[in-house]
Design goal:
Layout (H helix, E strand, L loop, with lengths): L46 E7 L12 E3 L25 E12 L2 E4 L15 E4 L8 E8 L8 E5 L10 E5 L11 E4 L1 E5 L11 E5 L6 E7 L14 E11 L5 E8 L6 E6 L5 E9 L8 E7 L4 E10 L9 H10 L3 E4 L8 H5 L8 E2 L13 H11 L2 E6 L5 H18 L4 E5 L16 H19 L5 E6 L5 H10 L5 E4 L12 H7 L6 H11 L4 E4 L13 H9 L3 H14 L6 E2 L7 E3 L4 E3 L15 H10 L5 E8 L6 E7 L5 E6 L5 E5 L7 E6 L20 E3 L2 E2 L3 E5 L4 E6 L11
Parallel strand pairs: 1-32, 2-19, 2-26, 3-20, 19-21, 21-22, 22-23, 23-24, 24-25
Antiparallel strand pairs: 1-29, 3-4, 3-8, 4-7, 5-6, 5-8, 6-7, 9-12, 10-11, 11-18, 12-17, 13-16, 13-18, 14-15, 14-17, 27-28, 29-30, 30-31, 31-37, 32-36, 33-34, 33-37, 35-36
Length: 749
């Protein structure tokens, strides 16, 4: 997904493949549901199915399901860090992009597209780095740059012109630092500019100067939590918070007015301070009681007379969680207990120095033109600390525009982090969706270029990290085209895995809830299995970097679309897709994404309740998809075994066993519109625990303002009937496990 704006995905909807016909119904293979099937109450006559584990494991020592941590925003639910301000150090933006050579003319090269070009002179004084072709690894200066019209894009004068540079080669370009710009802040009025003076000990390189002109006060602001009434307060200001910053005056004695407020109610902080000519640190603790109406949050600094410098600003909870993340974010991650956290936040154009920088020194970065394309990122050190705190292995999306020295620095950082945090493995994925044209500004669309650039990067990374670090290098491919998996697998010698995104229900044309619910379970796993076969023929495994509903197409009205992706049945729908992938042999999976209230789709920019498995980060706001992830991760451990199913409902059941013979745990996702009676092969010699999410309820968890959820994980008593058995309502998810030593067992791996 696009980490900034969650735009509709380009060319993603796969054709519905025919179900595989197999004599032995290994569950998840060939399961389909007709789009016109009617929902049947759980009280209707149930069909019996018997489920038992097959002997040989599909996967040994399977990891828990991962989760995309996602990008942080200032306006929506994805406000991940305790310091809620973007670019708190007031640093200049970092601009990088990828040029694909259209033509070489003397000392000049021309790009093959126009939409990435900047104004004349934008790249002057910057650097270039050739990433593919015979000249790969060559670097130098950009003497001059021009915006041009077709047939080429931007034009760049290089010094020196690399020998052997040819059309089709990929060249990363980076702009010289523009210290006149303050990224990710709002200049509401007056004169606010960057200044090279910084507070003592600051890791950053600039501050902001507020200088009134002509009687107009200078005001600098940051705006937060701006979705409004449709979502309620996504960033409630509750408990102990603080505002801190550094400031000084040009002469001393200047007044600086500051406010923290939610529109429509009294300010949390409203102060006027006098600054001296020397740098001072100001701190204002306050207790948040965020009652009153919904409205945007705003922090503002205003100067009416004289010049005041401002640096290194903090606004947020007084005691941050691990890695500087919000404590609510850490708490929900611990509930979901992901096996991996995937760090995808739009960092394709970032530098390695910026990935490792302290928060007050970190610059906003972008790889596409425009102020709206700036990403204010959390860094790798914070991300690694968070991974350790929640028991997850890191899955890093590596910026594609790094040069050779940066890849070496990256490897050294991974070596240090693996030792410091005790990671078992670190996944490194080369960019995000290189095949997708919306990432053309930093993606290698041509598979051969993708493979060459990735292998060069992985070689440097491994050499610097050394043999003591288990790095799993991955390239990525479009899920809908299995032949593309094979091509990138064949082209890359060093990648171990091809990462794909088996999103489901891309288009919804239903007119009723029963049709919509049935459609959520209609996806076959045939494309997945064919892609695994083709990648495997090239010696590569397959991983799932993103998976969830992708219901952005079709004619369904918004309310029905929202119910389809957030209703109680969505728990079983996501679980079914995850089980399909695992049973096909996929070890590493990462659901998309932690938090996200809604997203725009279609030409009318309508809204749908994607992509978060939590509507926001407050306690108790998990969607059914989040409940499914938490429930499955509580029992995933040990080996994965496929299930043998007998009975008339088996074509609507996807099931698997986790653990070993002494501690088996059964996970069952039902795509049946009617109730099922599940008879397991688990003996009644030990007590059993059954937990389920009832997908037949017709309920959802979407409550603006944080009302109690309607969908929950239910504890139900199973029956002993020649083995533990239970009733499974339509479209439901269940987990059956044997208790240990007569006590309720909870898996906390």
């Amino acid at each position: 997904m696009n980490a900034a704006s969650a735009r509709p995905r380009v060319a993603l909807a796969p054709a519905r493949a025919a179900a595989l016909a197999l004599a032995l119904p290994l569950l998840s293979i060939g399961s389909t549901v007709e789009a016109t099937a009617a929902m049947t109450p759980a009280s209707a006559t149930a069909r019996n199915v018997r489920i038992e584990a097959l002997r040989d494991p599909v996967l040994r020592d399977i990891p828990r399901i991962g989760l995309n941590l996602g990008a942080r925003t200032s306006w929506g639910a994805e406000q991940l860090t305790a310091n809620v301000l973007k670019n708190p150090g007031l640093e200049a933006p970092l601009d990088r992009t990828l040029v694909v050579v259209h033509a070489v003319e003397g000392r000049w090269l021309r790009d093959d597209t126009t939409w990435l070009a900047r104004s004349d002179g934008f790249w002057d004084g910057g650097r270039f780095d050739v990433r593919t072709g015979a000249a790969a690894g060559a670097t130098g200066r950009i003497l001059a740059s021009r915006r041009e019209s077709p047939p080429g894009g931007g034009a760049f004068e290089l010094d020196p012109m690399p020998a052997g540079l040819r059309p089709g080669d990929a060249v990363a370009v980076a702009a010289a630092e523009d210290r006149a710009v303050l990224g990710s802040w709002w200049i509401d009025q007056g004169n606010v500019v960057a200044d090279r003076d910084t507070r003592p000990g600051s890791p950053g390189r600039q501050s902001a100067r507020l200088a009134p002109i002509g009687g107009v006060a200078a005001r600098l602001s940051h705006h937060l939590d701006t979705i409004g009434a449709r979502a309620g307060k996504l960033l409630p200001v509750q408990g102990a918070w603080r505002l801190s910053f550094w400031a000084r005056g040009a002469r001393g004695g200047e007044r600086l007015d500051l406010r923290v407020l939610r529109h429509g109610r009294a300010a949390f902080v409203a102060r006027s301070v006098t600054v001296t000519a020397a740098w001072q640190r100001f701190e204002f603790p306050f207790e948040g009681h965020d009652d009153g109406p919904v409205g945007p949050l705003q922090l503002s600094f205003e100067v009416s007379a004289g010049d005041v410098l401002l640096d290194d600003v903090y606004l947020g909870e007084a005691q941050p969680g691990p890695g500087g993340f919000r404590r609510d974010a850490v708490a929900v991650l611990r509930t979901l207990h992901p096996g991996y956290l995937r760090d995808w936040q739009g960092q394709l154009g970032d530098s390695m120095a910026n990935r490792l920088a302290e928060p007050y020194a970190r610059r906003p970065s972008r790889y596409r033109p425009g102020d709206a394309e700036l990403f204010s990122l959390y860094g790798l050190p914070e991300f690694f600390e968070l991974c350790e705190a929640v028991g997850a292995q890191p899955w890093i999306v590596a910026p594609t525009l790094l040069g050779d020295d940066e890849w070496r620095a990256f490897g050294a950082a991974l070596k240090d982090s693996a030792r410091r945090h005790g990671f078992r493995e670190i996944i490194v994925e080369f960019g995000n969706e290189n095949w997708n044209p919306i990432f053309r500004a930093a993606g290698f669309l041509a598979p051969d270029a993708h493979a060459q650039a990735a292998d060069r990067a992985f070689g440097l990374l491994h050499d610097a990290a050394g043999p003591g670090v288990r790095i799993v290098p991955m390239v990525n491919a479009q899920f809908a085209t299995p032949s593309g998996w094979a091509r990138i697998a064949r082209g890359s010698a060093l990648a171990q895995k091809v990462a794909v995104a088996p999103y489901f229900l891309h288009s919804l044309n239903a007119a009723s809830k029963s049709e919509a619910v049935a459609a959520a379970f209609a996806e076959s796993d045939a494309v997945l299995r064919e892609g695994i076969r083709q990648a495997g023929a090239q010696g590569k495994g397959v991983a799932v970097y993103e998976v969830n509903f992708h219901t952005t197409g079709g004619s369904a009205p918004p309310a029905l679309r929202d119910f389809t992706v957030t209703g109680a049945h969505s728990a079983a729908a996501l679980a079914r897709r995850l089980l399909q992938s695992a049973l096909a042999g996929v070890r590493e999976q990462a659901v998309y994404t932690l938090a996200g209230f809604d997203s725009q789709y279609g030409p009318q920019r309508s809204l749908v309740r994607l992509w978060g498995v939590a509507r926001d980060l407050a306690p108790g706001t998990l969607r059914p998809t989040g409940l499914a992830l938490a429930l499955m991760n509580d029992v995933i451990d040990g080996d994965l075994r496929a299930a043998r199913c007998t009975g008339p409902g088996c074509d609507r059941v996807t099931a698997a066993f986790f653990g070993d013979a002494a501690d088996p745990r059964l996970v069952v996702a039902s795509a049946s519109p009617g109730a099922l009676t599940v008879r397991s092969a688990l003996p009644c010699a030990r007590p059993a625990r059954l937990r389920l999410i009832d997908g037949s309820s017709g309920l959802d968890n979407e409550r603006a303002g944080g009302a109690a959820p309607a969908v929950a994980i239910l504890d139900v008593q199973p029956r002993c009937d020649g083995g533990w058995s239970f009733d499974l309502p339509p479209y439901s998810l269940a987990v059956l496990e044997l208790e240990a030593t007569g006590q309720q067992q909870t898996h906390t791996r």
